[in-house]
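Severity: low
Component: inverse-folding endpoint
Summary: output formatting inconsistent between runs
Steps to reproduce: submit the following structure tokens with default settings.
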């Protein structure tokens, strides 16, 4: 996982140039998008236009991908084949985006170059079908997430609805840029180096590490290394139990404290970690994998299920993910119960999936949860991106 992002370094994001006001659309116009242009203040935007890069003149006849054919073919409204130009431009954009170090691209919806999720079907009848533009396809193939301005707006709206008062998570490039999440009994917040003693206290337990797939920590230095590396990746949180004071001054965790929206509840020490990380089994930049570990004294109280459910909500609503996955060793029934309670569906078993710290190859039970299934189960309680 990525380490810390240097303070003051702006995240680089590739953006369709027409949304930044450049007159590079097929009709010679621009298509400024306010929420995209506003990112200039906080991010380093890299303008891209695959069609200009591919040598197409501006203006030119409108083009569409013939989606009824399995082989890629792009034609214009006059029937001329423009596939080579679209491919050449897309390849140049991929090279530029990789050289600039962008891990996210915000691309113009429905475009035959930049469309993300829906494109016109090649009949020039204004018919939209599931699909991706040529440049968006190549970027995704390189592991670079490509989203439309429509999905960006939905994610920003979801983040605002939850009142984090923080950088929108979909634009975060490190844990420290992510918000804290609060549930009935827990606070999930980015780990700090000062949490190292607490992290070591539960990570030194061999039963915790063995079930999660990493060796038990031997010193606080191991915990500090975890916080600076895996714990610094975006969407990774420490788990802290809320502490509330009753009328006698005694600390209790029975009921949530009544606090202002800008104040985090008081907590005890860090008792675990939870987050969404890249799934090593899938080449899908729109999918993240749920991972977690919990201190043994906290087992059996439903705390990790509570934490996982909030992180799943965060992933679907605030990151706009269409899919979240999860795995566990087939011998780990505690993890299986958490995963099942969160609504994941069992996909199967990956035999000899990975080695545990003792060097033995272990089978992995594979699970996934689609955003559509989560939204259906959550009903009125969910904030569906794009809805």
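Observed output (run 2 of 3):
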């Amino acid at each position: 996982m990525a380490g810390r992002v240097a303070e003051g370094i702006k995240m680089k994001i590739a953006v369709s140039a027409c949304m930044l006001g450049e007159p590079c659309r097929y009709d010679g116009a621009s298509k400024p998008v306010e929420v995209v242009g506003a990112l200039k203040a906080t991010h380093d935007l890299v303008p891209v236009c695959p069609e200009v890069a591919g040598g197409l003149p501006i203006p030119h006849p409108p083009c569409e991908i013939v989606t009824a054919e399995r082989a890629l073919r792009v034609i214009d409204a006059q029937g001329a084949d423009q596939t080579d130009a679209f491919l050449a431009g897309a390849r140049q954009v991929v090279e530029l985006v990789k050289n600039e170090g962008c891990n996210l691209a915000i691309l113009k919806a429905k475009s035959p170059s930049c469309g993300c999720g829906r494109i016109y079907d090649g009949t020039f009848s204004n018919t939209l079908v599931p699909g991706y533009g040529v440049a968006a396809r190549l970027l995704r193939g390189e592991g670079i997430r490509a989203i439309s301005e429509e999905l960006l707006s939905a994610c920003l709206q979801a983040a605002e609805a939850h009142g984090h008062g923080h950088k929108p998570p979909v634009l975060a490039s490190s844990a420290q840029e992510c918000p804290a999440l609060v549930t009935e009994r827990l606070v999930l917040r980015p780990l700090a180096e000062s949490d190292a003693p607490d992290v070591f206290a539960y990570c030194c337990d061999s039963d915790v590490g063995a079930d999660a797939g990493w060796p038990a920590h031997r010193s606080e230095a191991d915990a500090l290394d975890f916080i600076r590396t895996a714990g610094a990746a975006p969407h990774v949180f420490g788990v802290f139990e809320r502490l509330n004071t009753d009328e006698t001054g005694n600390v209790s965790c029975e009921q949530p404290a009544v606090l202002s929206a800008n104040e985090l509840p008081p907590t005890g020490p860090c008792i675990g970690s939870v987050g969404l990380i890249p799934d090593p089994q899938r080449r899908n930049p729109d999918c993240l994998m749920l991972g977690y570990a919990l201190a043994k004294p906290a087992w059996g109280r439903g705390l990790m299920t509570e934490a996982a459910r909030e992180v799943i909500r965060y992933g679907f609503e605030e990151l706009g993910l269409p899919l979240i996955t999860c795995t566990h060793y087939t011998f780990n029934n505690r993890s299986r119960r958490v995963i099942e309670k969160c609504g994941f569906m069992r996909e199967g078993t990956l035999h000899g999936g990975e080695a545990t710290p003792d060097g033995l190859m272990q089978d992995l039970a594979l699970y996934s949860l689609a955003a559509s299934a989560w939204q259906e189960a959550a009903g009125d309680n969910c904030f569906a991106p794009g809805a």
